[in-house]
Amino acid sequence: MIGIRLDSGIGSTASLLLLGSILLFFPSGTVSSGIVTLKSIQIFTTHGLLSRPIFSSYGLVTAPTVYFNCQGENKTNLPDVKKKNSLYTFKDEESWQPVTEFLNKKCKRCGFYEKNIIMSDGVFDEWEFCPSDFKASDGVYVRLKDKEVSATFYCPECVPRHGRDVVARNHTLRSDNGGTKGNRMRVTSVIFIAVLASNGFIIGVLYRYWLRKKSMQARSGRRHRLS
Question: Is the pLDDT of residue 173 over 50?
Answer without folding.
Answer: no
